[in-house]
Amino acid sequence: QVQVVESGGGLVQPGGSLSLSCAASGSSFSTDAMEWYRQSPGKQRELVATLSRGGRTNYAGSVKGRFTISGDIVRSTVTLQMNSLQPEDTGVYYCRIRGRDVALLAQYYWGQGTQVTVSS
Q1: Which pLDDT score, from 0 to 100, does residue 40 have?
Q2: What is the largest CA-CA distance in the chain?
Q3: What is the pLDDT of residues 17-63, one digit of tens each?
Q4: Could you tell me if 17 and 85 are in contact, meaning their C-beta atoms sit under 8 angstroms apart?
């Protein structure tokens, strides 16, 4: 059983900053990449940022230059630092682990999500 837990959401004014954290625990899995998704009201869930083995990062165009993903793939921990937040960044942010089980089959593990609200 793999558990993925996010923390750090909340309410922030436009132009402010928030940091989200995610940690996965459990047995018999390995992590290939850790990702942050968000689902804004009325929109589909979208990929925001990815941290892969070797330290490679990738960002959605809408957050590039404002968000930074960092972490430790081996320990399955990741942080998303969000700066210059705007109302359109409002949504539920989910952490997803792209990993493998003991049979080396690809598996995806989701957290429960954390709410980020950007409003004055």
Answers
A1: 93
A2: 49
A3: 999 999 998 878 889 999 999 999 899 999 999 999 989 999 999 99
A4: yes
Amino acid at 13: Q
User: Tokens 């309410």 identify what position?
Assistant: 11
Q: Which of 60, 61, 98, 92 is nearest to 78 (CA)?
A: 98
What are the start-end ranges of the E strands in the chain? 2-7, 10-12, 18-26, 29-39, 46-52, 57-59, 67-72, 77-82, 91-101, 106-110, 114-118
Map tokens 């003991």 to a residue.
102
Three-state DSSP class for residue 6 = strand
Q: What is the reported pLDDT for 56?
A: 95
